[in-house]
Amino acid sequence: MSASSVRQRVKHFKDGNTNIQDQPRSGRPRTASTEPNKKRFDEIFNEGRRVTLDAIATKLGIGHNALQDMIGSLGYRKICALWVPRLLTEDHKV
Questions:
Q1: pLDDT (tens digit, 9 = 90+) per residue, 35-60?
Q2: What's the rounded Cα separation, in Å, for the pair 41 and 75?
């Protein structure tokens, strides 16, 4: 722990605060993982399983990081949508 962190903690406890939890802060709340967005994600995903993350993020109006968090919380995982043969035959090369 750095010296400045120790000083902040000492000041915090000298002021009479015994709670070590963070106080509520102002700022923008997380709004991406709401129930309507989760339902809309399921609808988009069930329409076509080959939909890209860019398309989903655009339709929902949220960022990629928020979308990744939401996908993880819903229990989905990304699987390759198209398999390519390792050894291409002459038929594959045409």
A1: 888 889 888 877 877 778 888 889 98
A2: 12
**Alpha helices for 1-94 (secondary structure H):** 3-14, 35-47, 53-60, 64-74, 90-93
The four Cα atoms 4, 8, 11, 15 give a dihedral, to 10 degrees, of 170
- Copy the structure tokens of residue 44: 């988009």
pLDDT in tens, 12-38: 889 888 887 877 777 766 677 788 888
CA 31, distance to chain mean position in Å, is 11
41 burial via Cβ count (<10 Å: 0-12, 13-18, 19+): buried
